[in-house]
Amino acid sequence: MDEMMTNESLLAKKQREMGFLHHFHHLGYDLIDLGVVEKFEWTQLSHDDLHLMLNRHKWQSGDKLFALRSDWTNAIVRYRKQYHLRADKIAYSGPVYSLLKERHQLGVETFTDSIPKQIEVLGDMITFMEKELDLSLSVAVVSHNKLLKKILSPRELEDPSVRKFICERNQDALKHRLGANHPLIGLMDKAPTEQAGYLKENYPELTGHLNELAEWEATLKSKNVDYVYADMLALPNQSYYKGIFIQLYGENQTEPVASGGQYTSSSKAFGMAINN
The pTM is what? Predict the structure, then answer.
């Protein structure tokens, strides 16, 4: 009986994967499959490569560095650059391995600086999750990478203690670390509904980013997500996010069922992945 349940679970997982690839193939996405072992040249490692390397299974052979794929977006960007891939929209599926766990992802990427086209890809992913996976999205959290970069100095932003206290929303600890008059404390003193206004008033140069944040928030609300929350204090979970980043949650779930955001490739790009 246990073996039969295991077989059924495996078949269901593979069917979801094939269903995902067929679905996005019919929407005009190019499908891509890459090897799970990646090869690097020490002299050609980017900042994002180095950052991701800290959490990878890796080994060295001669003057080459090898690692298990820990992130699809990073792998696709490097592949696209190396082989001059011209696809505008890509769909993929497969495992990623970090030092702590293995995940199986179903994801999409679009390589365009057009916000409406990026939003269209987000809509394609949400529609698939709701109609094909029967997922009811309860919460969406949308944030912008540029906000905290303006409020915090580079040294403060890279401080592990500061990052930990921000994630915990530990205002007392941040006051002790940064000082009671730090602008981050001023932002945290405001109610969430007043934080965008506070930033516009004190950092008018952020107005464009805040308007972009409001546009994505409105888009998510139009996709029948129960609750959409614009978080001015969120830290991106990937170093390569350069603009909007989003996390989607199912009902009564504490871990996002999907996440993604804007990043810079040869042009501004956007990706979203389901943790299957």
Answer: 0.88
